[in-house]
Amino acid sequence: MANAIRLPLEVFYERETRHPNKRYMVQPLPDGRLQELSWAEVGEQARRAANWLRSRELPQGSRIAIISKNCAHWIVADLAIWMAGHVSVPLYPNLTAESVRQVLEHSEAVLVFVGKLDDWPSMAPGVPDTLPSVGLPLRPHAEFSYLWDDLQACTPIQDDPKPAGNQLATLIYTSGTTGTPKGVMHHFSNLGFAASHAIELFGVREEDRVLSYLPLCHVAERMFVELASIYGGQTVFFADNLDTFLEDLKRARPTVIFGVPRIWTKFQMGVYSKMPAEKLDFLLKLPLLGRRVGKKVLAGLGLDAVRYALSGAAPVPEALLNWYKRLGLSVLEVYGMTENCGYSHVCRPGKYRQGWIGQNSPGVEVRIAADGEVQVRSGATMQGYYKEPEKTAEAITEDGFLRTGDKGEQDAEGNLRLTGRIKEIFKTSKGKYVAPAPIENRLAVHPRIEQVCVVGDGLVKPMALCVLSDIGRQEAANGTRGELEKSLKALLAEVNASLDKHEQLHGLVLVKDAWSVDNGFLTPTLKIKRNVVEGAYGPRFAEWQAHHDAVLWH
Fold this sequence. Notes:
Pfam families: AMP-binding, AMP-binding_C_3. The protein contains 19 helices and 27 strands. By secondary structure, the chain is an alpha/beta fold. Among the domains are: 2-210, Rossmann fold (3-Layer(aba) Sandwich); 426-553, GMP Synthetase, Chain A, domain 3, CATH 3.30.300.
């Protein structure tokens, strides 16, 4: 199977030869200018850097780290590492120094590329003094062993190195929702299998445009941006920073876009901050005007040219998908894991079934185990966890199926529905099991709830901890708390009416502080760390359960 798959570097060389002068990447610079790189320029810079890496005479397959926010030279460095015969180890650009050290030491990295970062001083102590560093063109003001210009002073390599399909390409460290990050090993054939199939599935073309803004070190962005650009030829625009995100989006006017549910919610909140939800909903219902209003809203977000919009990494509330549909944009759910290159299931256009993710992707086998766990097998399945054979054996069955840790079911058409995480399911003090994710999805439809975490391990009844959106918090502060509370009570009653008795919520607790990556409540991919939420608020659970208010302000 692996022989038939075209591998990333081979496909890159073909593109470089076929359209050397085509624009490949558009990078905003600190002075407001835009830097454009063609395929030939990217190839030449990668080849010069690869020559410099070769001159260091490192053992083949050495691990080389990349610590940077998304930028053009993140991808150029990755290509250079591969051309030189090494393994790239990307790190999240917002890790603590301790986490940086953990990954660098565990992966035995011999060199680190450092690029665009917001807070290098807090990360830098995690880089051992003995580890040589290379500063990329966009880099922090700091001392580095070498600069990108030093690498570019080398002549380009003259050969086209083609690593074997069964050669290790990258170690992708998981974002650590369940504790210590694990290094997922992917061969070039894994990346090639997932990318070549995905390109066919979505029909990504050379005229497509994508905005790169989710961390490139995460498997979804790596596949959807870096590998999709190599296999499909799309132009990659980079976002400058969070403040300029909307301008970056409008400049790129992407034709394909991938977002996590939190991003799709943020877009919606942004629209509601300019126009009240009730007014927009009323306008969208009007026959002819509704379509024009929807188009205008999408244009205002820079999403009016989108052919394909995907959402993944966490369940997305159905009401949110329906909201975008009314604007004229079909957001399709995609399901996958770091352990299978994010390539597993996706909803096909026109085949949407409410409440279900979609069908398994080409080349993916699926089965539901006796305990309800979804298990998948394909050419995208990882080789295992680096230096952790026991954890690898726990994750992959003897016949090669990946245990996803998700409970689910399939219908006759092959649609998959997730019903909860096996590890997240908790038991109340009455001995009844509760899956939090489906309940959280029902609560997240409220336009003023931005984040929600259902807890209940060992409690008489589960309860939901909620973080209000910015607008919700303003309303609460402006003395209109009564109206908000009334609608939240109605939501609670509606959700409880749809749940089994043992799942019904004691109440909603509105917590004051938003959960973010910076305060440790979210992973770098914006997933809620349940253990952190429970650790922070756990001491108050018994007190909150003693109250009989449906909505409690904490």
